[in-house]
Amino acid sequence: MTPPPAPTMAAESNANHGGRHRHVLLFPLPYQGHINPMFRLAGVLHARGFAVTVFHTHFNAPDPARHPHYRFVPVPDVVSGPDPVAIEDVVAHIVSIGGACEAAFRDLLAAVLEEYSRDAVACLVADAHLLPIFQAANCLGVPTLALRTSSAVSFACFTAYPMLCEKGYLPVQDSQLDTPVVELPPYRVRDLMDIGKDGHEVLCEMMARAVAAVKGSSGLILNTFDALERRELEGLRQDLAVPVFDIGPLHKFSPAGESSLLRQDRSCLEWLDAWPPASVLYVSFGSLACMSPRDLEETAWGIAGSCVPFLWVVRPGMVRGSAHQELPKGFEAATRGRGMVVGWAPQEELLRHRAVGGFWTHNGWNSTTESVCEGVPMLCRPYFGDQMGNARYVEHVWRVGLELVGELEMGRVEAAIRRLMTGRDGAEMRSRAGQLKKAAEECTGKGGTSCLAIDKLVTHMMSL
Asked: Helix or strand or coil: residue 460?
């Protein structure tokens, strides 16, 4: 076996707790929405004195040159074929990738343990979707912690999934979409994670594996905060036999830095400088969500008809079946002088910009918390996974946004944008979003609940 690459000087000179160097090992799930929180956690732990070693797949591999203070250990896998695009393929890939890496990871982990010495390794933090990685680490006597990169209520749904199936909520039936899920208020059936009958079995497997990984670990790390999900966190602590650390929002402690898989167009920040406060709608549907050509057209003309200034991320691969995203003919002329379209953008900085007054989002958890933390109200258009539940909370629990439900039609899009950006409802949402922003600042400030949770996490890691 080829030995892992030697650590950098920076890695060698890191943590010294009680006279001993301590290392934390990380293994992210190789998707953008999972990579970013793991690298933010790496930044938090590195700042607390840990040396960081990142195990990673070849699929969506990070660039070690962007993270000179960390050591990287590539783990070969046996997954082949084109990159997954359809959500069913993504779920199947998530289920398979841990097993595909398990044997190689076990050998590489053994080599790292021999090099560092077992006592120098505090633990492995892995994405909860990588159950075989947890099992391999446990076989070698390495304590594990599970990172869930979504909300507390999302994981509560994972644990409740067998019950939801037993009671007939799942698989979702179109006739039951608006039926309340009385066991998980305020969810309706449409807010539950579902990818159709054909994908139901593999989705159940994905959730069961994540729950098993968490229950078999030494603790659960969540990228959320007490003021946002107090009731949901209390429920998890009652239901789980492992400690729960709500240390988020992680981006407030540690910027994502250079963990983006797509090249960011930073010229949009300068473009925003010319606009008045809270006047620009920022539109981005994340790194995975796809839309049909028809939906792209209706979205474009709805944006154009709203007469609201906008910054729109149209990333490569966003439209199904099309390598190149072409906006409708005449759209550029219709919006000239009040809009900008980019392939990818520095989202955290954009949401902090004074000119951004609303965010049309797919409601991935990272995007949702970043918007909450900057006091930006949301127009919600969830596509899959936990996004529907996140949108439900945005509109009906936190009341900082509105969901665009049903078929995309330019008239409905136009009306929703105006309601968010210029209507009375939007102003009230913006006010409530400002209150949540203040709550997030308190949680992440000195003595705040998230800071205390990080202290507890570090103490816990040192005791394993």
From this structure: helix
